[in-house]
Design brief:
Blueprint: H1 7-12, E1 20-23, E2 27-31, E3 39-45, H2 60-76, E4 84-87, E5 103-107
Antiparallel strand pairs: 1-2, 2-3, 3-5, 4-5
Length: 108
């Protein structure tokens, strides 16, 4: 069941369309609807979780899988040689709009 009012949960559930870049059992990656770079992909865990500063050892697998998926997305989108940025916005003050953990993967 998607978390109420979580747009990324609705995307994961297939209720809102996305342009999928990568998917595995634990993560989904799709193009940002408002890209800030030529390649701008969001990588999200399928489990709704948000605050990195509240994570603990129980999140080791989730966070590890997310970072592995980030690397796969970088390879799939051919930005490994040019270089790429990985950004996690945490909190409204940092510009976060969607409160479901996600990595922005951005490259030229
Ligand atoms: P953040 O500000 O870190 O929470 O980033 C949220 C990102 O989600 C923004 O870059 C939005 O452009 C993006 N976004 C919001 N809705 C969608 C959507 N339906 N499909 C793809 N990206 C989205």
């Amino acid at each position: 069941m998607p978390a109420p009012n979580c747009i990324f949960c609705s995307i994961i559930a297939g209720e809102i369309p996305c342009t999928k870049v990568y998917e595995d059992e634990h993560t989904l990656a799709f193009n940002d609807i408002n890209p800030k770079a030529r390649v701008h992909v969001l990588v999200v865990p399928k489990t709704c979780f948000d605050r990195l500063h509240e994570s603990d050892e129980s999140h080791t697998q989730l966070l590890g899988q997310l970072l592995i998926a980030v690397g796969k997305v970088a390879a799939l989108t051919d930005i490994t040689r040019s270089g790429y940025r990985v950004q996690f916005n945490q909190g409204k003050g940092a510009g976060q709009e969607v409160f479901h953990l996600h990595a922005h993967v951005m490259g030229k």
